[in-house]
Amino acid sequence: MAVERTFSILKPDATERNLTGAINAMIEKAGLRIVAQKRVQITKAQAEQFYGVHKARPFFGELVEFMISAPVVVQVLEGEGAIAKYREVMGATDPAKADANTIRKVHAKSIGENSVHGSDSAENAAIEMGQFFAGNEIVG
Ligand code: GDP
Q1: Which one of 24, 77, 97, 133 is CB 3.0 to 4.6 Å from 32, fit for a cystine?
Q2: What is the phi/psi pair of residue 80, to 5°?
């Protein structure tokens, strides 16, 4: 399998509870390398653009408000099959349905406040990394 990069967000419920280190430990234990990372307060416009695909969903407003409710940590993760691997490490969107020892099972508060985001395809990973990082900020 090829070495890939994926885009990750440690969401407001994670930063507010000081879980950045605990979640990063799970990421690194899974063999993913954190090759870029910064703490940012995202704007409403950025959140609306980022989750634009969910615009028509009933939870869209709540999701945007949640994503701007506190700072987040945006990251680029690198490793063999990183996109699928990180989705596996994250667990299902709804923590009640997530496998044991996944980030969401261990840390998420609810289906909305679910601690982490990870890109779902190579195409989206490239778009999402470009929204938050300049190329020279990613050091592999
Ligand atoms: P993901 O790829 O596992 O993050 O899941 P989706 O792309 O389906 O949804 C994006 C994000 O929207 C999720 O991670 C949640 O934060 C939020 N979300 C999804 N479904 C719901 C829901 O039913 N209610 C609420 N409040 N938020 C949701």
Answers
A1: 77
A2: -60, 125
Question: pLDDT tens digits, residue range 16-32?
Answer: 999 999 999 999 999 99
Q: pTM here?
A: 0.98
Ligand 1 pocket test, pick from 42, 59, 94 with the greatest ligand atom count within 8 Å of Cβ, gives 59
117 C-alpha to ligand 1 centroid (Å): 9
Single-letter amino acid code for the residue at 69 = S
Rounded Cα distance between 38 and 137, Å, is 10
Phi, psi of 82 (to 5 degrees): -60, -35
**Is residue 117 flagged as an active site residue?**
yes
Q: Which of 5, 11, 104, 117 is catalytic?
A: 117
Q: Is 114 left (phi over 0), alpha (psi -120 to 50) or beta?
A: alpha
